[in-house]
Amino acid sequence: xxxxxxxxxxxxxxxxxxxxxxxxxxxxxxxxxxxxxxxxxxxxxxxxxxxxxxxxxxxxxxxxxxxxxxxxxxxxxxxxxxxxxxxxxxxxxxxxxxxxxxxxxxxxxxxxxxxxxxxxxxxxxxxxxxxxxxxxxxxxxxxxxxxxxxxxxxxxxxxxxxxxxxxxxxxxxxxxxxxxxxx
Length: 183
Hints:
Elements (H helix, E strand, L loop, with lengths): L9 H6 L14 H68 L4 H23 L2 E4 L11 E7 L10 E6 L1 E4 L2 E4 L1 E6 L1
Parallel strand pairs: 2-6
Antiparallel strand pairs: 1-4, 3-6, 4-5
Helix pairs in contact: 2-3
């Protein structure tokens, strides 16, 4: 077998890992053997690099799947949280009108405690409300539902009111704040 017949193509070997490694000829000179060793080392480095890239991609994909899973759970939970907040607001308004009823005060305090516990639980998992009112409109965080004439206090493009609160988990928006923006 001539030295040219023992050619080893690294790219082909990377595509087909089952390709046998050529054996050096006893007649070939040491420089051919050195070239074969160098090619095998290069192949080993490439395969190792491919494995490292695969491992990093796998970790990244797994982390993204966890984030997506959290978001899937958080959206319905935030709807319940908003309902609880509205119930608490209604109980506060009713308490101003019917102040003094012991059973109503106890119910109102109970709702307040549940709401606070819920807020603490969301905070523990990293969910934060998006500040909107008085801030410049940011399409990455806010969803404009209406526009109103700007007041003396607010410039054009400023959020005047919040229709529905928005939330973020870390740097990712879970739900955009629905807002009214000054024209």
